[in-house]
Amino acid sequence: MNLFSDIRTVLLQTLETLSSGGTLPGDLDLGNVTVEPPRDPSHGDIATNAAMVLAKQAKMKPRDIADAIAAEITSHPSIASAEVAGPGFINLRLAEDLMRAQVTGVLEAGEKFGDADVGGGRKVNVEYVSANPTGPMHVGHCRGAIFGDALANLLNKAGYDVAREYYINDAGGQIEVLARSAFLRYREALGETIGDIPEGLYPGDYLVPVGQALAAEHGKSLSDMDEAEWLPIVKDASIDAMMAMIRDDLAALDIHHKVFFSERDLGRSDEQGSKLAEAIDLLDGKGLLYTGVLEPPKGKKPDDWEARPQLLFKATEFGDDVDRALKKSDGTHTYFAADIAYHLDKYRRGFNEMIDVWGADHGGYIKRMQAAVKALSDGEGSLDVKICQMVKLFRAGEPVKMSKRSGEFVTLRDVVDEVGRDVVRFMMLTRKNDAPLDFDFAAVMEQSKDNPVFYVQYAHARICSVLRLAADDFPDADLSDAALATTDLSPLDDEAELALIKLMAGFPRLVEQAALSHEPHRVAFYLQDLAAGFHALWNKGKDDARLRFIHTDQPGVTMARLALIRAVALTLAAGLGILGVTPVKEMR
């Protein structure tokens, strides 16, 4: 059910009629013909560019085509009127019966309202969070986690086959630092006085239980070993402990990945060699590697920079600004080389469409990674990278201090534990991902219309309250969705009621557009608009008793309005489902 798709079908049928009648040429390419809401709602319900995009093909003036379309399309019962504007834009007003029928459609669809098929079942890989397993996740990770999860929900609703993936960066030098930090806590657990944590190691107390667990399992045996012996043991234990903590924190946000991919697996060899070596061989076989010398970085040159021959990837042939190194001066591979191998693995698992959600400090990495995906897949694979900007925390306008747990920053768990999962999830989606976001612990808990999560939840709870009252006033009435879907909706004729239906009918198109642009924040914006439309109708009923939802002496009018607001509740619930937020039935 999609009102805009239905009207586009009516429009295409109209164009076929005009072609068969000789008004327009046959065999027109109609692929660019669109229908969308007019910029100014006062101009109508739906606007189309048909005349503008067909004029060149038809060798006619756009205005002449628009006049012909307007005259023909009004013969369809769904179209109340058509008006030509400007050089050839067409604004349509829809029949009120068609608008009212949208309520029935929503009630029949339930929370599946808005399900779309623009994805066509295509596989898409959404990689998000991927925080280094060196400590608790901070609030910046929180935003990326929620954005990625909501995006995955959105794509799933739009008809994609979505895989949710986490890349574990467990092979770099930071993991050795983690292991040495945990080993210090292990010595502490054995009774040694360790003093201040040396600079360069992780100071947070979250490693205390890791040290205690090592002591319980190994006793003093590790302390008798050389570092080369204990380091791998402590490294594995530390990574396992950090990933368990990360999984637990993500579960608090109801985030569950399908795949956890280890960076260390890229370097492990089997009969075919390692995945890392395989990716480099693939690029080499395509003639995309060479040994060369890079120009010094622009701006201030690092003190330790020196011109030297390196193994380079021809990234500039695929849109990057410079070619990129695949090996460091010590002969080991760069992080970029590992990322190339990882994305090749994704592509070979059948993901032509890939989306990575990265932190704010990774913006300079996008071009090289997209260049690598193009090169590896011969242009068949695509990578969209969504950057999540920083989150600034406040409490009643004052910046929030650091967490005791991490020793350095406010953790994801600190935020969730204080305000709750639903509040965090909704608020993190109230700005576009690439815009900075302020999160005020006091403001997000306010019960006012200025608090978007309260405003939307309150709309759903208010509707549930009205339905409970109606059940008391009409004890013999069947208020199920199936029964309300058969209600005569003709009493819905006030402009505020029709405006609310029109807003609700736009939800399926909103889902499609948000999914195609990878922008789940559009859903949060839409829900605020829909909630505002409902609250406006509620307030109008306070001023005009005829518009109240329940009239005990007018069961027909009451049932029509209950059908309307129940449809609004289902739409709110469907949208909140995309955001991963629970639609509440009562405000507490």
Structure, described:
The chain is α/β, with parallel strands linked by helices and 588 residues long. The protein contains 20 helices and 17 strands. It has helices at 3-20, 50-58, 62-73, 96-109, 139-157, 173-189, 208-218, 227-252, 264-267, 275-285, 335-348, 366-377, 412-419, 421-427, 452-473, 481-484, 495-505, 507-517, 521-543, 555-579, and strands at residues 35-36, 46-48, 79-85, 89-94, 123-127, 161-168, 259-262, 269-270, 273-274, 289-292, 310-313, 324-325, 353-359, 382-388, 391-395, 398-399, 437-440. The longest helix is centred in the middle third of the chain and has 26 residues, at 227-252.
Q: Which short descriptors sum up this protein?
A:
17 strands; alpha/beta; 4-stranded antiparallel beta sheet; 588 residues
The proportion of residues in beta strands is 5-15%
Helix count, per DSSP? 20
Proportion of helical residues: 40-55%
Q: Kindly, what is the distance between the CA atoms of the first and last residues, rounded to a whole number of angstroms? A: 35 Å
Q: Please state the CA-atom Rg, rounded to the nearest Å.
A: 29 Å
Could you give the count of β-strands? 17
In round numbers, the mean pLDDT is 94
User: How would you sum up the global shape?
Assistant: globular
Q: Which ranges are low-confidence, i.e. pLDDT below 50, for 5 or more consecutive residues?
A: none
Main pleated sheet: 5 strands, parallel
Q: Write out the strand line-up for the largest beta sheet, numbering strands in chain order.
A: 7-6-5-13-14
Structural class from helices and strands? alpha/beta
